[in-house]
Design a protein that fits this description.
alpha+beta; 4-stranded antiparallel beta sheet; 10 strands
């Protein structure tokens, strides 16, 4: 069956997606990139990025229109995160973690809960974090110890959550806690906790290798009493909601990895055309050309896998079948983050001694890339997930 060029859009984003990319790239280069090195050096929250993203409705694009959001699809969300991450990985955690923290409410929350918490998020009045990990419950998240005990019309929460991104800055926290210790994963429930709830406090910011502009802190819950209607979904469904959330949001980590890798490749490409050794640009040497070719090839493979996973995420969100989303989400996150680590390491190599200094952005990109192999499930865990969900 013959088709014209305009009918064959199977493997490319729509015109609207391309326009969004151009808009976000321009904004990121003008308003976020100038502060990226300083944010990393001072390990401070990228307030300039938050202000710019909120002013342009790009801080939480995934929130449905019915709650005041942009209603962006999963691929549009990926493109926003990718383009912000291309200049500053720390800043990309604003839209990424806003989705991670609020998606349990979108997937499983009551209508009242959605109205109460998604509207301020969409307006930019609040950020949302996700509290799953604990000191003794990392990859084995079902082994968590944080408890939520019913007391009349309330639940009382006690425990410690670790590695919480944007903790202390976010107003809202999706917290997983044990409501029935006998049932292991089926005894875990999800709640919305507010920063202002009595008994909520935060540990000192972690001193990290990368993403230094995004605070990572422990969240302490000391007899935190919250209304029972802040439970997300039914009692005992929290762990299932947490895992369903990760099927969708691992793709945003893949997006972050793509952005970091693209930023590194773009910088290295420019550098090798300018840097001269032995009387000509080092980009003229075949050994350098082969490195760039491999970097670009890995990046494009990662992007295609990530965009295919994002399309599946959107179809599932719209009521389609499972579409092997668990496999594709894990595969995209795992492949893209491994590729980002390889590409940023090679980019540093291409700059030689300069790549190793803070005068150039590549050592920061290499440090930032590492975390994408670790959070939202280590890449070893992703391989377990893939093996259990082979399509």
């Amino acid at each position: 069956m013959a088709s014209s060029v305009n009918d064959f859009d199977l493997y490319r984003p729509s015109e609207e997606h391309d326009m969004l990319r151009d808009a976000v790239r321009s904004l990121a280069e003008a308003k976020i990139a100038p502060y990226a090195a300083e944010v990393d050096e001072e390990a401070r929250f990228p307030q300039e990025a938050l202000d710019a993203l909120v002013a342009n409705d790009l801080h939480a694009v995934h929130v449905p229109e019915s709650y005041g959001g942009s209603g962006a699809d999963a691929l549009a969300t990926v493109i926003v995160i990718e383009e912000v991450s291309r200049v500053c990985a720390s800043s990309s955690l604003i839209p990424a973690v806003n989705k991670l923290g609020s998606l349990p409410v979108i997937l499983s929350g009551s209508e009242e809960l959605k109205k109460k918490y998604l509207a301020p998020l969409a307006k930019g009045d609040a950020m949302f974090s996700y509290c799953l990990s604990e000191p003794d419950a990392g990859s084995d998240a079902a082994g968590m110890k944080t408890k939520a005990v019913r007391d009349g019309d309330s639940y009382v929460l006690n425990g410690v959550k670790r590695w919480i991104t944007n903790a202390g800055v976010s107003e809202y926290y999706t917290v997983m806690a044990v409501t029935d210790p006998e049932k292991r994963s089926k005894g875990i429930s999800a709640f919305v906790v507010e920063k202002s709830d009595p008994g909520v406090s935060f540990g000192a910011p972690e001193k990290k290798l990368g993403i230094k502009g995004s605070p990572t802190r422990e969240v302490y819950l000391d007899n935190v009493r919250i209304p029972a209607d802040r439970m997300i979904g039914a009692e005992g469904t929290g762990f299932a909601t947490a895992m369903k959330t990760l099927d969708h949001t691992r793709i945003t980590i893949a997006a972050q990895a793509l952005g970091i890798a693209q930023g590194a490749l773009d910088y290295a490409k420019g550098y090798v055309q300018e840097r001269k050794q032995f009387g000509k640009p080092i980009g003229d040497f075949q050994g350098v050309q082969f490195m760039l070719a491999d970097m670009a090839m890995k990046l494009e493979a990662a992007r295609q896998l990530t965009y295919a996973a994002a399309a599946r995420s959107e179809r599932v969100s719209l009521g389609g079948g499972k579409e092997d989303l668990t496999f594709f989400g894990a595969a995209a996150k795992c492949y893209a983050s491994d590729a980002a680590m390889e590409i940023t390491t090679d980019a540093v190599q291409l700059l030689g001694g300069y790549g190793y200094t803070r005068d150039y952005p590549l050592e920061r990109m290499m440090r930032d890339a590492k975390i994408t192999q670790i959070y939202e499930g280590t890449n070893q865990v992703q391989r377990i997930v893939m093996a259990r969900n082979l399509p």
